[in-house]
Write a structure and sequence with these properties.
about 40 residues; mainly alpha; 1 helix; about 95% helix; rod-shaped; transmembrane helix
Length: about 40
């Protein structure tokens, strides 16, 4: 039973990490190009 709990914990942490990376990628991808466009104009 303990092994099952450990597996679920690792799955949850990996999902959280993926969500964090996705958010950082989305925000970073939006802010960097917009900043370049502002500088070009």
């Amino acid at each position: 039973m303990k092994q099952y709990i450990d597996n679920s914990n690792t799955q949850n942490s990996s999902i959280i990490l993926k969500l964090i990376l996705l958010v950082v990628f989305l925000f970073g991808g939006q802010t960097i190009p917009s900043g370049r466009l502002a500088q070009n104009e």
